[in-house]
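Need tokens for this chain, all 397 residues.
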Amino acid sequence: MDARFTEEQQEIRRTLRELTTKRCSPDDVKAAVRTPAGHDPALWSTLGVELGLPGLALPETRGGVGAGIVELALVEEELGRVLAPTPLFATSGLAAPLISALGTEEQQAGLLPRIAGGGLTAALAVPGTGLATALGLIADNAGDWAGGGRAGGVQATRQGDGWQLYGQAGQVLDGHSAGLLLVAAHTGGFARSRTLLFLVRDDAPGLVRTRQTTLDETRPQARIELRHVRAELLGEEGADVVGALAAAGDSVATLLAAEAVGAAGRALERTVEHVKQREQFGRPIGSFQAVKHRLADVYVQVQAARSAAYYAAWAASVPGGERVGGLALAQGLEALRTAAAEAVQLHGGIGFTWEHDAHLYLKRATGDELLFGPVHLLRARAAQAAELFAQAAEAGV
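Here are the structure tokens for all 397 residues:
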């Protein structure tokens, strides 16, 4: 195994580092999240149209670059460093892989080139708070998160030769601005209960989208209400939607892990810069042994999380490789939480203020754990998938 990045992969990192340094300062990020779209459209045009990042992991036959998850993970790491609010993760991390896995030839040909070119953004709408479960990250995906006939889900019924959706979904990442929604809905009643995915255009009659107030403003979310909305079935009716979602879960976790590592690394860098300058008792506080030890512990944790994220990306790109995205995500979120907490503490009084940027990293850590965790369930799910508990029981442990 050659763990070194290729020159092309290094160039992706250098290009994005230069771009985000110029256009994603903390003030730029705060201004972007307060726009109606929740992100900077000019920056998204650069990332999507000029650099073609949404098509990085899509095949060339669909208008993409033909790279893989390793390259996309490097992109997410760089965007995570500056907490850049963009529709890239929702579009290329969540929606595009599902369209590729389940869509008909006509659907893929009509949608994926537009996504790859940056002209179409997409979002995955899962009812309730079940996104992590739907992706198989914290529990077995049984499909009941889509409604199961109960109130609060999304129900799909046949209307002539088409489908109609009724219900709502909260916590839809970038759902307020996406040009296309992939909506998970329940159909078949009790006897033939199953979950399907449907395509809903942003201008569909009966569709109401409301941007939500969230803990982490850099990760915009929306509530989607569907009132007898006409929808197009994604793929065939007998498609294994639950299996496709679970299969996409490892890649999603890997990308999130890389993003968390980027944010954790930047939070640590900013803290180190601060303790070198802030003086107490006539000397920089960074010269005190206690501060050095605390930052050294954070550094080790961030580097370990970075290695885990890189390995998860490499393994996901290898046929038959281990699927360890959930473990990498757990380690990445833990590293980000620790780095952000230390940033707040070691910045002293200013670290607790809204005017400072340290709270943005703490909110990202907390928000992502609420959406895709918690950490202990990510690890428990990985242990369950590896049958560690069964092996321990057999060994009499």
